[in-house]
Design goal:
The complex is a heterodimer. Chain A is 0% helix and 55% strand. By secondary structure, chain A is mostly beta strands. The radius of gyration of chain A is 13 Å and the shape is globular. Chain B is built from no helices and eleven strands. Chain B is globular. The chains are: A mainly beta, B mainly beta. At the A-B interface, strand 5 and strand 10 of A face strand 4, strand 5 and strand 9 of B.
Chain lengths: 111, 113
């Protein structure tokens, strides 16, 4: 069973809009929560990551919000651009760096 | 630096055949991982290694074996391929702490007929 649940499966957003992807986890041993971006035919690449002692982290147009008590975290993509069209994976890792991935969200940004 | 490289990029096997996937990294990373990616399921960990000569099972290890004889290489073997092993396989490496970026290779697309 999936230890990290991700929603929605897909979303379409207009250029300039906000994309929001949500994830939830069960295992409290997870201590690092990265988001990966993947383009077709490529391997995943780290986008942004957060530790559980921080409630929010922002890097450019990308923001992670983290709610430790609810065991939930989300990715916000502000001012979405066509180049942001990709599949996004949330993940959680333990001390051995073993990543547990969500099922992925395919984001399409329309011009 | 080439980063993480994977060989081959594509392969078609018949049921029962064997093959080895090679992952190489030139970043002197301690930890290496093999994942498989299937539609709608994200990536799942097959096996991993936390140093030369060590290996451990991940979430979906059945039907696969691995070896880490050299720090820079991590091999994934399929002894008797099955159609259920049709997938895209990704190798990744990390410097040695879970709080660092895990670098992924470009993937190997394997089809088992």
């Amino acid at each position: 069973q999936q230890q990290v649940k991700q929603s929605p499966q897909s979303l379409i957003v207009q250029k300039g809009g906000i994309s929001i992807i949500n994830c939830a986890y069960e295992n409290t041993a997870f201590d690092y929560f990265p988001w990966y971006q993947q383009f077709p035919g490529k391997g995943p690449a780290l986008l942004i990551a957060i530790r559980p002692d921080v409630s929010e982290k922002k890097e450019g147009r990308f923001t992670i919000s983290f709610n430790k008590s609810a065991k939930q975290f989300s990715l916000h993509i502000m001012d979405s651009q066509p180049g942001d069209s990709a599949t996004y994976f949330c993940a959680a890792t333990d001390s051995w760096g073993k990543l547990q991935f969500g099922a992925g969200t395919q984001v399409v940004v329309t011009p | 630096n080439a980063g993480v490289t994977q060989t081959p990029k594509f392969r078609v096997l018949k049921t029962g055949q064997s093959m080895t996937l090679l992952c190489a990294q030139d970043m002197n990373h301690e930890y290496m991982y093999w994942y498989r990616q299937d539609p709608g399921m994200g990536l799942r960990l097959i096996h991993y290694s936390v140093g030369e000569g060590t290996t451990a099972k991940g979430e979906v290890p059945d039907g696969y074996n691995v070896s880490r004889l050299k720090k820079q290489n991590f091999l994934l073997g399929l002894e008797s391929a099955a159609p259920s092993q049709t997938s895209v396989y990704f190798c990744a490496s990390i410097i040695g702490s879970s709080y660092n970026e895990q670098f992924f290779g470009p993937g190997t697309r394997l089809t088992v007929l």
